[in-house]
Write a structure and sequence with these properties.
Strand order of the largest sheet: 3-2-6-9-10-5-4
Number of strands: 12
Keywords: Oxidoreductase
Shape: globular
InterPro entries: Flavin_Rdtase-like_dom, NADH-dep_flavin_reductase, Split_barrel_FMN-bd
Family: Belongs to the non-flavoprotein flavin reductase family.
Bound molecules: flavin mononucleotide
Structural class: mainly beta
Radius of gyration: 14 Å
Number of helices: 3
Number of domains: 1
CATH architecture: Roll
CATH topology: Pnp Oxidase, Chain A
CATH class: Mainly Beta
Protein name: Flavin reductase
Organism: Acidiferrimicrobium australe
CATH superfamily: Electron Transport, Fmn-binding Protein, Chain A
Amino acid sequence: MRQVLGRFASGVVVVSGSGPDGPVGFTCQSFFSLSLEPPLVALAPSRSSATWPHLHRSTLFTANVLRDGQADLARSFSRTGVDKFAGVAWVPGPTGTPHLRGALAWVDCRVEQVHAGGDHHLVVGRVLQLAGEDGRPLVFYRGRFASLEG
Ligand SMILES: Cc1cc2nc3c(=O)[nH]c(=O)nc-3n(C[C@H](O)[C@H](O)[C@H](O)COP(=O)(O)O)c2cc1C
Protein backbone atom coordinates (compact mmCIF):
# COMPACT_ATOMS: atom_id res chain seq x y z
CA MET A 1 0.00 0.00 0.00
CA ARG A 2 2.66 2.54 1.07
CA GLN A 3 4.94 1.85 -1.90
CA VAL A 4 2.26 2.10 -4.56
CA LEU A 5 0.02 4.79 -3.05
CA GLY A 6 3.06 6.88 -2.14
CA ARG A 7 3.08 7.68 -5.85
CA PHE A 8 -0.01 9.80 -5.29
CA ALA A 9 1.53 13.22 -4.61
CA SER A 10 -0.31 15.50 -2.21
CA GLY A 11 -0.05 18.71 -0.29
CA VAL A 12 0.45 18.66 3.47
CA VAL A 13 -1.70 20.22 6.19
CA VAL A 14 -1.26 20.61 9.93
CA VAL A 15 -4.67 19.99 11.48
CA SER A 16 -4.86 22.13 14.60
CA GLY A 17 -7.30 22.81 17.40
CA SER A 18 -7.62 23.35 21.13
CA GLY A 19 -6.81 20.80 23.80
CA PRO A 20 -7.18 20.99 27.59
CA ASP A 21 -3.65 22.38 28.00
CA GLY A 22 -3.43 24.60 24.93
CA PRO A 23 -3.09 24.21 21.19
CA VAL A 24 -2.79 20.75 19.61
CA GLY A 25 -2.17 19.57 16.07
CA PHE A 26 -0.84 16.86 13.79
CA THR A 27 0.57 16.62 10.27
CA CYS A 28 -1.89 15.17 7.77
CA GLN A 29 -1.68 14.22 4.13
CA SER A 30 -5.11 12.63 3.79
CA PHE A 31 -7.06 15.86 3.41
CA PHE A 32 -9.25 16.89 0.50
CA SER A 33 -12.05 19.16 -0.65
CA LEU A 34 -15.21 17.02 -0.57
CA SER A 35 -18.18 19.24 -1.49
CA LEU A 36 -18.77 22.82 -2.62
CA GLU A 37 -22.48 23.02 -1.72
CA PRO A 38 -22.53 22.52 1.18
CA PRO A 39 -18.85 23.36 1.70
CA LEU A 40 -17.20 20.24 3.13
CA VAL A 41 -13.69 18.88 3.46
CA ALA A 42 -12.55 15.43 4.59
CA LEU A 43 -9.52 14.10 6.41
CA ALA A 44 -8.40 10.81 7.91
CA PRO A 45 -6.84 10.86 11.40
CA SER A 46 -5.39 7.59 12.64
CA ARG A 47 -7.32 5.78 15.38
CA SER A 48 -4.09 6.06 17.38
CA SER A 49 -3.87 9.85 17.01
CA ALA A 50 -3.42 11.60 20.36
CA THR A 51 -4.64 14.89 18.88
CA TRP A 52 -7.84 13.79 17.18
CA PRO A 53 -9.89 13.16 20.39
CA HIS A 54 -9.31 16.80 21.40
CA LEU A 55 -10.49 18.10 18.04
CA HIS A 56 -13.50 15.77 18.15
CA ARG A 57 -14.42 16.93 21.65
CA SER A 58 -14.09 20.63 20.84
CA THR A 59 -15.79 20.05 17.41
CA LEU A 60 -13.53 22.67 15.79
CA PHE A 61 -10.34 22.36 13.76
CA THR A 62 -8.24 24.25 11.24
CA ALA A 63 -6.45 22.69 8.29
CA ASN A 64 -3.28 24.78 7.83
CA VAL A 65 -2.00 24.19 4.29
CA LEU A 66 1.79 24.20 4.50
CA ARG A 67 3.99 26.25 2.23
CA ASP A 68 7.17 25.25 0.41
CA GLY A 69 9.89 25.57 3.06
CA GLN A 70 7.72 24.37 5.96
CA ALA A 71 8.92 20.75 5.92
CA ASP A 72 10.44 21.18 9.40
CA LEU A 73 7.00 22.16 10.69
CA ALA A 74 5.50 19.09 9.01
CA ARG A 75 8.13 16.90 10.66
CA SER A 76 7.68 18.34 14.13
CA PHE A 77 3.88 18.03 13.95
CA SER A 78 4.29 14.36 12.99
CA ARG A 79 5.69 13.55 16.44
CA THR A 80 3.36 12.45 19.20
CA GLY A 81 3.18 13.07 22.93
CA VAL A 82 5.28 16.26 22.88
CA ASP A 83 4.43 19.98 22.99
CA LYS A 84 4.50 20.51 19.24
CA PHE A 85 3.68 24.22 19.53
CA ALA A 86 6.84 25.08 21.50
CA GLY A 87 8.68 27.69 19.44
CA VAL A 88 5.99 27.72 16.74
CA ALA A 89 4.51 31.07 15.68
CA TRP A 90 0.69 30.99 15.60
CA VAL A 91 -2.32 33.18 16.19
CA PRO A 92 -5.86 32.19 17.21
CA GLY A 93 -8.21 32.24 14.21
CA PRO A 94 -11.83 33.44 14.20
CA THR A 95 -13.07 30.27 15.95
CA GLY A 96 -10.13 30.24 18.40
CA THR A 97 -8.26 27.39 16.72
CA PRO A 98 -4.53 27.96 16.01
CA HIS A 99 -3.47 29.39 12.66
CA LEU A 100 0.20 28.69 11.90
CA ARG A 101 2.15 31.75 10.77
CA GLY A 102 3.36 31.50 7.21
CA ALA A 103 0.92 28.79 6.09
CA LEU A 104 -0.26 29.02 2.50
CA ALA A 105 -3.93 28.76 3.47
CA TRP A 106 -6.18 28.06 6.43
CA VAL A 107 -9.54 26.30 6.45
CA ASP A 108 -11.60 26.60 9.64
CA CYS A 109 -14.06 23.74 10.10
CA ARG A 110 -16.61 22.20 12.41
CA VAL A 111 -16.72 18.40 12.70
CA GLU A 112 -19.88 17.29 10.89
CA GLN A 113 -19.55 13.50 10.55
CA VAL A 114 -17.11 10.81 11.68
CA HIS A 115 -17.10 7.48 9.83
CA ALA A 116 -15.16 4.30 10.49
CA GLY A 117 -12.27 3.84 8.06
CA GLY A 118 -10.31 0.78 9.12
CA ASP A 119 -7.40 1.91 11.28
CA HIS A 120 -8.34 5.54 10.58
CA HIS A 121 -11.43 7.71 11.05
CA LEU A 122 -12.92 9.41 8.01
CA VAL A 123 -13.89 12.87 9.22
CA VAL A 124 -16.15 15.23 7.31
CA GLY A 125 -15.76 18.88 8.27
CA ARG A 126 -18.10 21.78 7.47
CA VAL A 127 -16.08 24.74 6.21
CA LEU A 128 -16.80 27.84 8.30
CA GLN A 129 -14.21 30.27 6.95
CA LEU A 130 -11.11 30.04 4.80
CA ALA A 131 -8.40 32.16 3.19
CA GLY A 132 -5.20 31.69 1.23
CA GLU A 133 -2.15 33.57 0.03
CA ASP A 134 0.11 33.44 -3.00
CA GLY A 135 3.03 31.04 -2.88
CA ARG A 136 4.06 27.46 -3.47
CA PRO A 137 2.79 24.47 -1.53
CA LEU A 138 4.80 21.88 0.34
CA VAL A 139 4.42 18.55 -1.49
CA PHE A 140 4.72 15.00 -0.13
CA TYR A 141 5.67 12.28 -2.60
CA ARG A 142 6.99 8.75 -2.04
CA GLY A 143 7.81 9.41 1.60
CA ARG A 144 9.68 12.65 0.96
CA PHE A 145 8.96 16.35 0.98
CA ALA A 146 9.26 18.02 -2.39
CA SER A 147 8.40 21.31 -4.05
CA LEU A 148 6.81 22.35 -7.30
CA GLU A 149 9.04 23.87 -9.96
CA GLY A 150 7.90 27.35 -10.96
C1 LIG B 1 3.70 14.02 5.40
C2 LIG B 1 2.93 13.33 6.50
C3 LIG B 1 1.60 13.01 6.31
C4 LIG B 1 0.84 12.40 7.31
N1 LIG B 1 -0.48 12.13 7.10
C5 LIG B 1 -1.22 11.60 8.09
C6 LIG B 1 -2.61 11.38 7.90
O1 LIG B 1 -3.17 11.64 6.85
N2 LIG B 1 -3.32 10.86 8.94
C7 LIG B 1 -2.72 10.55 10.13
O2 LIG B 1 -3.41 10.09 11.05
N3 LIG B 1 -1.39 10.74 10.33
C8 LIG B 1 -0.65 11.25 9.35
N4 LIG B 1 0.69 11.47 9.53
C9 LIG B 1 1.31 11.00 10.78
C10 LIG B 1 0.98 11.89 11.96
O3 LIG B 1 1.37 13.23 11.72
C11 LIG B 1 1.69 11.34 13.19
O4 LIG B 1 1.21 10.03 13.45
C12 LIG B 1 1.55 12.17 14.44
O5 LIG B 1 2.35 11.62 15.45
C13 LIG B 1 0.17 12.22 14.98
O6 LIG B 1 0.21 13.07 16.11
P1 LIG B 1 -0.82 12.86 17.27
O7 LIG B 1 -0.54 11.53 17.89
O8 LIG B 1 -0.57 14.03 18.18
O9 LIG B 1 -2.18 12.91 16.65
C14 LIG B 1 1.46 12.08 8.54
C15 LIG B 1 2.81 12.40 8.74
C16 LIG B 1 3.54 13.02 7.74
C17 LIG B 1 4.98 13.38 7.98
